[in-house]
């Protein structure tokens, strides 16, 4: 049957070419659009991880819901022990502590409300690969009186490297405390909102300001993002019931979660559009081909071939077309994806960000397989109705087309 299907295909070169073109461009288009969406989400996720959140964070219970209002109430006294435990896990790359505070930053002329973090500088530098230093340099371990400020804070108070500033806040006991710092640099992260209020100082300085040792969070950077859920589950299993909670970066980034939902919905609509286009294009071509060959199919049935044989013959022809078109489409899509990725696609900053990026086309097995199956299934689906119609045509009526 397939040998006869191949011979029949070779007899109608123009229509076959039109059908193959629809399948090829549909499959290639799905690969490119799907690979583009995958790359955008991957870069957005990595930027979120490596500018602020890390892969996994451990908090004192209740901090995730209420800690932004009063971080001093959710300080973990044994944060160092938790950090040491997590650092021994083979999946962990860097483990660091952060102590959060809120207060007023004063430059001698004006005040600016800030949300600050006491950090372990060298570890934060390893994590924050997506955090750009606009002026000066990043915070280092020896900067006991240094402060690293967001671009929005620097603009609001007209700060630059070397500027003197003072932080005023309430300690954990409710008393006022103040310390003077020198600006070592200005940073710009993936989030404009974060940059407008954030400052970073050494962890020891934050403990001195708050009058208490400890940390609000233990931040874990992993060797592979794919291990996030595994590591989070392992940590939960060890500290469950001890008054702590564990969250992944996807839990903590509402913007990323909503972006994923948006892009998946858009790509889902695009998949349906391409599927319908391929269906209509192939259906039109197959319907015309079958209509012109009714007499041929009538002769086949008059010679003793069954109606099911005719039905499966038409499907076999289109199965061959679908496979060839899908394979060529995947090949074309792969070549285009490699070429486009080599050049890059300049992208404007996403919402709530000042930093643009260069997108590429990610070739992942699930995207390639999905595009291949859409091309094949759409071709077979488009042939079902014409094949059913011609196979059910009475033999005497079909033979009249030969006259």
Could you please describe the fold and organization of this structure?
The protein has two domains: 2-47 and 257-402, no CATH class; 62-242, no CATH class. Helix content is 56%, strand content 20%. It has 15 helices and twelve strands. The chain has helices spanning 2-10, 13-53, 63-66, 79-87, 121-127, 151-157, 192-197, 203-210, 228-239, 249-252, 254-292, 294-302, 307-343, 365-391, 395-399; strands spanning 56-60, 92-106, 111-119, 132-136, 146-150, 164-170, 176-188, 198-202, 217-222, 244-248, 345-347, 357-359. The strands form two sheets. A six-stranded mixed β-barrel has the order 2-3-8-5-7-6, surrounded by four helices. A hairpin with a 4-residue loop joins strand 2 (92-106) and strand 3. The chain starts with a helix and ends with a helix.
List keywords for this structure.
single chain, 12 strands, alpha+beta, six-stranded mixed barrel, 403 residues, 56% helix, two-stranded antiparallel ribbon
């Amino acid at each position: 049957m397939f040998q006869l299907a191949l011979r029949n295909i070779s007899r109608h070169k123009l229509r076959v070419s039109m059908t193959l073109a629809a399948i090829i461009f549909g499959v290639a288009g799905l690969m490119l659009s799907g690979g583009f969406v995958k790359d955008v989400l991957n870069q957005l996720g990595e930027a979120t991880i490596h500018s602020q959140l890390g892969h996994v964070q451990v908090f004192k219970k209740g901090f995730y819901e209420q800690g932004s209002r009063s971080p001093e109430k959710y300080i973990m006294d044994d944060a160092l022990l938790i950090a040491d435990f997590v650092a021994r896990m083979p999946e962990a790359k860097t483990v660091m502590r952060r102590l959060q505070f809120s207060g007023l930053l004063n430059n001698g002329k004006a005040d600016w409300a800030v949300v600050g973090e006491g950090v372990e500088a060298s570890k934060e530098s390893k994590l924050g690969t997506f955090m750009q230093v606009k002026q000066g340099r990043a915070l280092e371990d020896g900067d006991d009186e240094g402060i690293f400020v967001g671009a929005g804070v620097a603009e609001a108070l007209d700060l630059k490297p070397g500027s003197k500033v003072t932080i005023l806040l309430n300690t954990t006991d409710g008393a006022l405390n103040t310390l003077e710092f020198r600006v070592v640099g200005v940073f710009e992260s993936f989030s404009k909102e974060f940059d407008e209020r954030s400052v970073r100082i050494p962890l020891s300085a934050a403990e001195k300001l708050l009058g208490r040792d400890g940390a609000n969070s233990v931040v874990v950077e992993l060797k592979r993002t794919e291990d996030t859920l595994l590591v989070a589950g392992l940590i939960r299993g060890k500290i469950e019931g001890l008054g702590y909670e564990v969250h992944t970066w996807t839990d903590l980034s509402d913007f990323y979660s909503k972006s994923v939902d948006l892009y998946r919905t858009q790509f889902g609509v695009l998949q349906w559009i391409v599927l319908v286009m391929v269906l209509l294009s192939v259906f039109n071509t197959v319907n015309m081909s079958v209509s012109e060959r009714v007499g041929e199919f009538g002769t086949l049935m008059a010679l003793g071939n069954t109606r099911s044989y005719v039905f499966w013959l038409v499907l076999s022809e289109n199965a061959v077309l679908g496979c060839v078109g899908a394979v060529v489409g995947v090949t074309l899509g792969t070549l285009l994806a490699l070429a486009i990725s080599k050049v890059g696609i300049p992208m404007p900053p996403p919402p709530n960000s000042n930093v643009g990026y260069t997108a590429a086309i990610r070739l992942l097995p699930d995207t390639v397989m999905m595009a291949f199956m859409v091309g094949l299934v759409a071709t077979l689906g488009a042939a079902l109705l014409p094949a059913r119609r011609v196979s059910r045509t009475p033999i005497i009526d079909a033979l009249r087309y030969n006259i």
